[in-house]
Design a protein that fits this description.
By secondary structure, the chain is of the alpha+beta class. It has five helices and nine strands; from the N terminus they run αααααβββββββββ.
Amino acid sequence: MSFFEDEEEEPFPEPPREREGRPRQRGRGTGGRSPLGRVVVILAAVIVLVLVSSLAIKSCLDQKKVSEFHDYFDAVAGVTKDSDAIGKQLSGMLQNPNPNMRQALEKKLGDFQSASDQIVERAKAIQAPDQFKQEDEWFIASMQVRSRGLKGLQPALLNALGAQDTQAGAAQVSEELLILLTSDVSYDEFFYQPCQNELKNEQISEVKVPESKFLTDPALASEQAAVTLLEKLKGGPQAQVSGLHDVDLVSLHVQPSGMRVKVGGQNSLKASDSLTFSVEIENIGESTETDVPVSLTLTAPGQPTPQKVDGKVPSIAPNEHKTINLTGLAAQAGPEAAILKASCGPVPGQTNLDGTTAQYQIVFS
């Protein structure tokens, strides 16, 4: 054997054969997915895309809604600002009246009314979002009430200034001012509060509903404030006194029995630590009188200092009877008669004092 014949050459190894009847699987490692896996991935991607798109659309819609609300309430704020400015000027005139204001008063009230009418038209022109359609009707109505109040205030005030009866004129002025005050209530109750609630329900905090107040002080609408206004515009209480002014004392009754105390002769009453009397008066003049003073004075035997109680009848019209109860007088039993004096008035401008006082003799037992 030669050197070259010591080792038998081995042939090259054959590659392994695939098993018959079973195809070779590919992509089963980490680098590939089955068809079902790919479908799941695609569906997940689609769901994520839909969610993102939905959130984006919702965000855009929310921003559009907030922008729409901003525009609406900004427009409302512009209207209420101008309306409130008129109310502030009017309130200042009512709080600080003087006789020199009378000439300019008619023109000023006319200007207020004209400006208020224009404000109503501006309020109507504002386009309200669907969420605030109902509230917007109340907003417009509140502006219309203000225009109506100003329209009635001008003739009421001018008529009251020319009338002899200040009290009756003051009642008319107060009625128109109460209409203006009502506009503040309707705006707050039926527009401001419901809009605030709707924004809260929508979870929108960056939009503000404007507040609005026409009369700076609700007390300006009271009848007594109107009396004070007219008196100052006329130059004081005495400047408006004209015609016949006269109040008379009509009768006196003891309570709770209701027995009438008679003038002339003696009256018998039961002694008490707190006597109550009803004083009836009558306005026989031509003007309504206000704050008519009424008093009772009791002078008892052995008591040098008389007892006195006072009261006021708030208002009494011509030919009207009013009764006021006065209490607080104390009387002790005794054989001698006490003297009880009743009086009413006088009112400003009253010259005839007959009938304003009466005197009674009373024996307390």
